[in-house]
Amino acid sequence: MDSQIKIDFENFLNKENFSKSQIQLKKNNFNEFVKKGFPNKRIEDWKFSDLNQIIQTNIKKLNFISSDLKQEDFEITTIKDFEHNKIIFLNGKILKVDFSLEENDKIVIQQNHNINADHIENSLVSLNSAFVSDYVKFTVKKGYQAKKPLIFYNYLTTDIASSALNIRIDIDLEDGSSLNVVDLSNQNLNNNFINIRQNFHVGENAILKKYFLDTENSKNIKYIYNNLDLAKNSHLEYFILSSGSKFLKNDITCSLNNQYGSISLNGIINLDGEKHHEIKTVINHKDENCKSYQLIKSVLADQSKGVYQGKISVDNKAQKTDGYQLSRALLLNDQTEFNAKPELEIYADDVKCSHGSTSGNIDEDSIFYLMSRGLSYHQSKQLLVNAFLNEVLEKITDEKIKIFIKKLTGLTNEY
Amino acid sequence: MLSIKNLRAKIDNKEILRGLNLNINPGEVHAIMGPNGSGKSTLSNILTGKKGYEIEGEVTFEKEDLLKLEPEERAHKGIFLAFQYPLEIPGVNTNIFLKTSINAIKKARGEKEFDAIEFLKLIKKKSADLKFDEKILSRQLNVGFSGGEKKKNEILQMSILNPKLAILDETDSGLDIDALRVVSEGVNTLRNQNNAFLIITHYQRLLDYIIPDYVHVLKNGQIIKSGGPELAKNLEKLGYKDFN
Ligand SMILES: Nc1ncnc2c1ncn2[C@@H]1O[C@H](COP(=O)(O)OP(=O)(O)OP(=O)(O)O)[C@@H](O)[C@H]1O
Ligand SMILES: [Mg+2]
Known about the structure:
The complex is a heterodimer of chains A (415) and B (244). With 415 residues, chain A is of the alpha/beta class. Chain A has helices spanning 3-15, 20-36, 51-58, 123-131, 364-371, 377-393, 399-409; strands spanning 85-90, 93-98, 107-112, 135-140, 150-155, 164-173, 178-184, 193-202, 207-214, 221-230, 235-242, 247-256, 262-271, 276-285, 291-300, 305-314, 321-331, 337-346, 351-361.
């Protein structure tokens, strides 16, 4: 690690008002990151995506702290298609909150200055813990069902360039509550390394639906560490549309901690140019009668690269586990690359687990059939790609959000 | 309308068509019969623009070199093929596909595209004419359709697109007796002085319903005999073995 990061870290600590113990915690995390550096392909979890290399080739000189934020007048365009609550993030910090569609005090937002002392073997999480300040925690109160979805809007100020941005969001659904969140991860500026850590806790009988959308073309490099904790009889629907950024890795660890918890994780990787995206999941079945379902479909054009690493791990006490995982990739070009690494690790005997992975080219006979009915090659191909991806979009259970996503992406044949 | 001169086609160095000649004028119905593997579907594919063949010879459609056109350009000019084996396209809704298809053709011809209501009317009428259960059109294109339903769906598309030259590749195979009659009526109602049909079949029975002007025998990649409807009747009796 060069000395720039050390100078940046000192400046950061001087600027922010941390307590002594916080400073020590941050220093520990910082040293851990400096020791390990950005992950490279020699690390098993990163063998298909050498982040160190990717950052070096795409960002010349990375700043770890940006100059003082200047408030700018920039236009915030919000979605008109349906009523929703809003949180507008500027450089990862809250700029504006609008929960006027909900009852008072049922969704509580806290800005946390201090991190806790948890330790995770992951240099990027350490980096995040070292540099994060004022992160956000939402709590949906016990038994409260949010009436409308919540949309995260993410903006960056124009002085952010070649910067490493460390963002953290925690969501806690108390027992019996529910919330639908759309995370529009469309940062408007380029060449930044955006390092996000998300912790979700879904309480007993609670339901969280989270839709992550990365659709706008950008040269940003993003890593998202997702830690998902599910309590008894809770459900999490997690949808990922991975398409816009130069590099994006969604790293998901989900723990089904208690009986009858379930997760449905559905992802689309849709890339062109030289983009490189990865979805990596680890689903830990820790108790009986839990279900996990994963469907990942990738469409790769030009020289793009897609990766799916999915692991289902079943504890010895997690009998009657139902674990399903399928990855399908459509390669539109010989120069694309898709890597899948499915893994099962099962210590219980009464379980139903399956995994599968296929990749193939577009069917030229189908293209000919469509062209013989007057469609151009491009139109035919688009129709087949949309048809291929539609199965994943159909997994979205919030109808309004489904229609919105279909419109936003054009990934639909229903025109 | 269509003129084929000395057409030769190879695929993977295997010679399939070996100097085929055929002329079709507006208002005519031509039937082609021939043994399995003689090159009938290959001829249909080449006329509609499928890639992958090494082609020699000349094919013109309304005086224009057909071979240099893309498949969709041929469709825009009014060539239609009812496939011997219609493809299943998962995830594509049949109705939406039909609308996309007709509007692509209308757009290419500079005509006004159908809106949702006009299209619905058209579809209702055409599927009623063909006694085709409309419900099936809300399903994925050909996916899980029975053999006969796939063939009827091809004919439905033909009647919607109203082509100048329709090639029917064994559309009768797999149709039940009633469906055969309905499909034949569909062809007969479309038939007029300005369009033409090329009907590939193994069975003379279809030609009792759709009376052809000419019958050709295709064998080993060549048309070895041509005649009137009576030729089909003879073939039915004698088979192909005596034709050389
Ligand atoms: N892609 C290909 N590669 C090699 N041989 C091929 C290919 N396509 C067709 N053929 C061969 O060309 C010959 C003609 O095939 P074609 O499908 O045109 O026959 P057909 O007259 O339509 O037969 P049928 O009555 O059984 O439908 C056959 O011997 C077939 O095996
Ligand atoms: Mg054939």
